[in-house]
Amino acid sequence: MATIAIYSLKGGVGKTTLAVNLAWCSAIQSSRRTLLWDLDPQAASSFLLSDGKTKEQAQSVFSKDVEPEKLVRKTAIERLDLIGADASLRGLDLLFHELDKKKRLQKLLTGLRKSYDRILLDCPPGLTETSDQVMRAADLIVVPVIPSPLSERAYTEVVKHLGGKANLLPVHSMVDRRRKLHAEALARHPDWPVVPMASVVESMAVRRAPVGSFAARSAGGQAFTELWQTIEKRLSA
Asked: What is the pTM of this model?
């Protein structure tokens, strides 16, 4: 089992888009038993993959009130399960601080190891107690970076914070190659995977489905496939 975190210090960079589409690639294209664990109280991944109905129990697994398996829900996608998010996660950082258990998330993931081949974590933005838990638990951290100075600065801060302790994969996200700023950023980092800005990606929220399920051959669908192949190669190295 491998744990893949989709994380960014900065919000609005396409984190949930990556998480949902990579989870689909894992389940459908790699035929892996896959779990997407939504840790973001905004619950965007949960909205895209479920009916959105929750019991406000998402935080309870961390305080040991509920076992993680009890919150696992099947999705409409074969081999893809979901642990949804809800508003209770807004207090997760405080709970982690009070528990003072640095590897609480890692232990919970170990308990799920027998049931899944890949676990993806859709993480809230920011350098917080939650992000520190994620960074300790993840085998690979995928970091979406919009080709802009602020987003690149945020990535630099993540690298500085980790100090080489984590396995990071930066990904240029929401790319418009017609923009000079974007083209220059891509030239600086030609080895970073690229996910384009595309209407078919934006339509995910309307369809409430991963791009691969309705437009696998589009530029966006192909970009997610190629990124997933890169991730699988990184994990097997």
From this structure: 0.95
